[in-house]
């Protein structure tokens, strides 16, 4: 029996850094969504725990024991064997939570395979601050360091273009470079957006507080945002600690596709660029 699980890209549509804990971790207030773009995990029973990585982004990663897929498998079922295949499509260390999504998908697949309960919230968080939100793959308001999750009002349908300029950004380095650690959160109750224009207009008043320090380290992030805006994105920003940026488009099935395939692909073939639907 093989179990397959999709590990979708996580996108921080907003990312407000609201404080810092004594242990150095930052407090966040973030509207997180997922896209129909991601990695795949395939698990089959086996005597030993093994990992094979294939897919277009496999080169960015090795199947070392500290791979988040193997760490998740060991956390859920210590000592049990499984042959896991990770098909890597999301660029590594790019702000769209690839490793966290893989860990969450592995936990889900392994718990089905072995009929085991999922680990508790505290244990899940030890795999990464983004793993709890990646377990649900539905839009959420994420607070604390990533452990406090609340549902959000229904979001309008939208398409998304993701662009990574192929520069690595270190999450700890970007957090460290953030000068002001206490910034305002989002409003206590998120509004009920009546349609896509209302949602876009609301997003225009939000922030990603990590965008400035990330762009200072990798100025090409500014070029990516300009390219998305010039191409007609309704809204463009950076996800997580970067360097991946996203542009939002009407859910008409062709706007995002033509921007991703024609404009950006032709203008910047050196960038990673893809499109999909916001889930
Ligand atoms: C920036 C975000 O992508 C927003 O969703 C996440 O908070 C990062 O989540 P992640 O990559 O799963 O993060 P982890 O692997 O847990 O942490 C990597 C490093 O980022 C910093 N870190 C992470 C999350 C957080 N709330 N505060 C932090 O300061 C810490 O230096 C930590 O050592
Ligand atoms: N399965 C995995 N996929 C991606 N990265 C992994 C994986 N396992 C371990 N890692 C390591 O985790 C680190 C973060 O990778 P990841 O792709 O999750 O970053 P990210 O997209 O910036 O995440 P976030 O948005 O949560 O900050 C990298 O240094 C990478 O080597």
TrEMBL record:
UniProt enzyme class: transferase
UniProtKB keywords: ATP-binding, Isoprene biosynthesis, Kinase, Nucleotide-binding, Transferase
Active site: 10, 130
Source organism, top-level taxon: Bacteria
Residue numbers binding ATP: 91-101
GHMP kinase C-terminal domain location: 206-261
Molecular function, one GO term: 4-(cytidine 5'-diphospho)-2-C-methyl-D-erythritol kinase activity
Start and end residues of each GHMP kinase N-terminal domain: 67-129
Family designation: Belongs to the GHMP kinase family. IspE subfamily.
Biological role stated in the UniProt entry: Catalyzes the phosphorylation of the position 2 hydroxy group of 4-diphosphocytidyl-2C-methyl-D-erythritol.
HAMAP family: IspE
Name of the molecule in the record: 4-diphosphocytidyl-2-C-methyl-D-erythritol kinase
Organism whose genome encodes this protein: Ruegeria marisflavi
Gene name linked to the record: ispE
